[in-house]
User: Fold these one by one.
Assistant:
Number 1:
Amino acid sequence: MAAQLGSLSLVERDDPGASIIEVMVGFARTLRHAGVPASQERLQAMIAALAHLDVTLAADAYWAGRVTLCSDPEDLERYDMAFALYFGAQRATEGRRIPPPSVARAAPFEPAGGDPHDERTSEQPKFAAQASRHELLRHKDVSALNPAERAQLKRLFALLAPRVSARRSHRYRSASRGRVDLAQSVRRLLRAGGEPSQLARRRRRTKPRRLVLLMDVSGSMTPYAEALLRFAHAATRAAPARTESFTLGTRLTRVTRELRLRDPDRALAAAARAVPDWSGGTRLGDTLKAFSDRWGQRGLARGAVVVLCSDGWERGDPTELGEQVRRLARLAHAVVWVNPHKGKDGFAPATGGMVAALPHIDSLVAGHSFAALEELVQVIADA
Amino acid sequence: MHPVKPELSDPTALAAALGDAGYLADIGLATAAYLGMKMHRPIFLEGDAGVGKTSLAQALADVTGTRLIRLQCYEGIDATQALYDWDFPRQVLHLRAAEAVGVTGTDAGRALEESLYDRRFLISRPILQALEEPGAVLLIDEIDRADDEFEAFLLEVLADNAVTIPEIGTIRAESPPLVVLTSNRTREVHDALKRRCLYHWVAHPEFEREVEILRRRLPEASEQLITEVATAVRRMREADLLKPPGVAESIDWTHALHLLGARTLDRERAAATLGAVLKYQEDSVRIRDTVLAELAG
Ligand SMILES: Nc1ncnc2c1ncn2[C@@H]1O[C@H](COP(=O)(O)OP(=O)(O)OP(=O)(O)O)[C@@H](O)[C@H]1O
Ligand SMILES: [Mg+2]
């Protein structure tokens, strides 16, 4: 086990408690991406709580996290799911009325696990070891995962809830309070024959932005395609009406409808069937143009947060790609480029396509590992 | 009262002490309460009606050998009911008495005015009482019934463990009270308040624990009646009722059945006493056709 843990080697530390706290902090981060508002302040409270308990016990860690990070019954479901997935331990549900989601009942990372209450009796390194294995998996490049790891990671995607935060639209709607709408008031005044009537008021309307995901599925991106599609599925589940997904290769395919299937595996299979050009070549510039012509220009990308996932390997003309990204950037509220190679040592955006696109994008993020995709959730939320 | 304060070294020890005081807490609730004591943070309890939120506070006071100070919230509650008020009739009496002996002159006048706001005319309401009584347990019950403004006010007091009375000065708790807040979720409580607290959702007890609670509360009831009631109540909670029965209801039901001489749960007596456990006509109709229909006649 120790050899397997390699550089992380959390369980080999002298103080197993310190490593658990580290892991719990990572766990809180995951929880935040899963939609539980586990703020920095709450994180501090969790660490303070752990100091009063026996952190090497799963039950103590579970409760310290739960009473400090959650604040609503709705959080609990996500918390339980995250905890089960993260630590391979489950809690007895104790007659809660909301049944835990079926994912939580799926086999945890380790076949052992069970109820953390029982773990007071079992040896403590197991809990720490599972937690550190999890951390390792979270940071591992998804292209290097073995089938077992891939299966484990699959379940973690159920925790992601990528969503764009609500925007303040420039349109106003009528309201009984808020700023006085002069034009409307004058109209009313005239209609009333010059008699002053009620002032019309208006308020800014908050309208959520759309999230558009454009995923390169050409040969060089094949190792990342599954993870990216799972990410897209999580986003679709979080906001079905406001998420649009497309694959880019030698041609453009819209997979929005396929990804709306609830079950992630079925959704991915359906998307895979819909895409005719898996692992083929790339003509990024051309397919982006096709996107803007057919969809983007007509409103789909207007004011949206557009996430383009590609390594930037371009068979076609890089200047065309640059031009198309510029066009997209003009339509969209923000363009985020996800390049899995950014997570690798010594990365510089040297491919011709990337260089041409760089001046027009708002942020460049990695996306090669689950942890990197969690960061992407944050970038999307902040866009 | 418990004169000897047990050594509460961890959540399990606290759960055991609560058990001795007649309250059977699961490890989650015991951990929340334990952390509340250790971290000096309020405990925020939410859960269905009758799951034991209020009685936990009493049990905590018993265990720590202190007094329970309770503030029941309601719509329109404000600082004069929660914190302090001036005893106006007594102030008036004091003023009259001073006038009768003939207080004159500006200095004497000012002194008189000051004496009107003497500590003895101050009426301490629950929060002030709790700040002044070392280690008290302060129960702020059903906070969801109070208004937003009251929440904001509460937030301030809880943050400082102190109150400032303009005429007297700041009163700070020597050792802050253990605060238990409860909510029935009739309204969303503001996150600013929740953030200061340890949050715990109080679930209905699992079967074994409920049986144990019933045994303790009604030692005279038959064992079979108790397990059958606990089973039936558990099924009712799964039935998505308007008001799922809490522990309070299962205690009442068992009690009613016992008074009718029941040693087991039979359909006829269950139907006759259903009002003890279900509070809505719609719920009763549904349960009569499902859970009760399956009971032995
Ligand atoms: N864990 C427990 N151990 C012992 N008695 C319990 C327990 N839980 C509940 N009870 C009993 O159930 C009854 C109801 O409890 P309580 O009034 O505390 O519930 P509550 O959650 O505050 O309800 P409400 O929301 O209606 O105020 C009380 O008589 C209490 O003694
Ligand atoms: Mg109560």
Number 2:
Amino acid sequence: MPEEKEKKMIDIYVMGRRYKVPEGLTIMTALEYAGYKYVRGCGCRGGFCGACSTVFRNKDDYKLKMDLACQTAVEDGMFLVQLPFVPSVRTMYEVDEIEPEKDDNLLLEHYPEIARCVSCNTCTKACPQDIEVMDYVQASLRGDIDRAASLSFDCIQCGLCSIRCPADIKHYHLAQEARRIKGKYIDTHSEQLKERVKELDGCVYDERMKELVKMSKEEIKIVYDKREFKKGE
Amino acid sequence: MILMDGYLYYPGCTLKTKASDYEQSAIAVMEALGKPLVEMDDWYCCGAVQSLTTDDLIHQIAPIRTMCCAQEQGENTLVTLCDMCYNVLKQANQRVKDQPENLDTINDFLDEDPDYLGEVEVYHLFEILRDMKKEISKKVVKPLSDLKIAPYYGCMLLRPTGIAIDDTEDPKIMEELLELIGVDVIDNPKRTECCGSYHSVNRSDIVEKRVEDLVARAVEDGAEAIALSCPLCQFNLDYYQRTTDYDIPIFYLTELIALAFGLEVGMKKHWVDPKKMLKDKKILE
Ligand code: SF4
Ligand code: SF4
Ligand code: FES
């Protein structure tokens, strides 16, 4: 064990109540250090699932900030609260039945409130993924589904943009529909992928997988280093 | 000036979707005139309706953000095609020029983004075309002398007076452009009346009455088609004719100019197909 170093303790305020926590923790671990136990608002702990949206203010800064609790370090004097859930309603559609080629205002029809966007850019500032959120809303509004899908690719559906938007837009559901349409109707479909899925359905790799699961870390490293790429991989 | 030739151009959402006929024909016309429309790198939905409330600055953000985009591209001239966009952008721009305290508030709100300096000027495409009469005449290869057309302005190009592209009560800009391409221009006393505008959303009965009234007068006076530039007027006059006894084509003026230049662009998304009449008249093959 490395030498125990004296950690500097800082004050954070969770829902208004003060706690002393060691400097350098993420908000998530600091909350656990303070005695909270997660039943909601925590998932992957790796910045991928979008479950740990946190709203906070720092000392001497008038701005309300948002970020992911598992990815953000606590700061002295931070006031924070975690959002276990963002209420947001999704428009129902059948992805096989929509006709984006014929209807260039499909996203606007499914989410008419996007026409209320005032270009304030608050959503973009809220996004922990540094996505150009306003730009994907604007792209959706002008029927540019391809651009909306590409811009929103890194969205983890944390909902922080939607909580902040003065126009009540449900950004992440809108963006998800754009990406689904792009995947199904805009992007070219890969033949290799189809073949690979067929192979998987035919259980071609099951034996190989069983072997891998049994291997030790060292054995896996050797197999990994020796792997060969076949045509089309 | 970064663009040596041509104009920085703001499309607006409708021109990218329902009114693509207008965008394509305008681009073709300006290309033919050697002054291409160059789409802005970034632009934002204008909001479609200018908010008249004096303390409602949030609805001025989008148009001013677009002004900023033009400024950051090094341009002071911004051209629009859609009458709604023109009206909103022009009014918002005028407002912050007249009321610098509004501009300060907006610039404060825009935060990290560059301040808008208030130096961009907004133009409607017709204003640009009005100054290019010689060039237009030179490009006409197929004068449309066999077409009787009534011009229609609607509201957005002419009201309020401060942003009008022409005389509010007696505009001539469209008449002059139509004459240049050889059209037999039908005098239209109802050309500055409202088409019913957004009432098409929830009070279509109002729009139906307006359309009946406007089209009937044009037809009685001998018009075979109407020319205009507002995508909403176009939709109302075109779509709602089904509730009347009429079915005359509603052209974007740029579609007609393109035709006179020997180009067939646009004319794809109309409800009353204009190509049928053009073929009957041997203007199209
Ligand atoms: S776009 Fe919205 S929901 Fe998606 S990651 Fe950014 S803030 Fe979260
Ligand atoms: S927060 Fe809402 S209104 Fe503001 S730019 Fe984003 S989508 Fe538009
Ligand atoms: S717990 Fe999944 S992103 Fe933070």
